[in-house]
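Issue: copy button drops trailing tokens. Both records pasted manually instead:
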Amino acid sequence: MRSRLLLTACATLGFFAMNRAHEIVSPLVSGPMAAQQLSDSNAAYVGTQVVSSWFNGSGLSVGVLLIALIAIWYGPVVKLLKSY
């Protein structure tokens, strides 16, 4: 049980670290992509939208956290539900 709690704490800290890294990198990547959007090309627009959604709360880091938590707690939750 202690190991699962420790792994949960590590996953949560990793989540916050990933969000912080996104905050730092976002302006560096989004600036040039926004400038490319002004070109006469649909590909530039699509690329800008993909990068913008990646760095502006697309939920990727939340998804990674949820997958990690499910992997950590799946066994105990299944055992608990089977006991009822």
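Record 2 (pasted manually too):
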Amino acid sequence: MVFVCRVLKIMPRYDDQVKQLLKKPSEIVFDTIRQSELIELKLYIDEPAEENDFGFLITAYVDIPQTLWSKDTGTYSTKITKKLEVQIFTTPEVGNYLVVFASNILVKEFVNSVTKILNTVEWFKPVLIDTDRKEEEIRNELGDFRRVYVKDMDDDLVKTATMGGLRLELSSDYARYIRDYGGRLSAVSLIYEGNWMMITFRGIFYSPSKDAESRKVEIIHNLLKLLKEIDALDTSS
């Protein structure tokens, strides 16, 4: 089973508020949409947070507004509810990092709901991963890249490229795209603990491995710990 997640950093000032919001069962309206009657958009926490070795895992549901059309009624507004999981890390190594296990679109909807409930956009910072400047350190810690994605090349004809193989850093294409054309590594794929793993500069982790999905909290914790140790995590944006 595939898993994908996005990493955020909870700002210390809002740490208690975020944890109080997500760790206990609740049903909170964060917005409304107008139709023939008012439709409430809610964030739902059905069960208490599940404590694990790395912090707390929360199962949440968020309402997402939808605009639909039918022959009978024309255009109308409604909502759908989507499920996601949120891990709040509390270990000394990566405390206050929050990981949302969901698609990027659903992550944005979740962040929007918490932002409106707390009435501030300052409760978090997106975590970026410096896959470009920390290329060598990431390879040294996590192993050789099996696939790389390069963007922003300084070439009139070629702006992006994807390469796959073994020992890519030794290939002439790798040298040309990154060193000669000044391309940026936007994402890398590698084998981590026996599982295929993609890491993007936007702080998104992806794996198609069933074993990785079953150990996703542990794997993401350990990856964040290693990336933090080599100063590859950026929350300055």
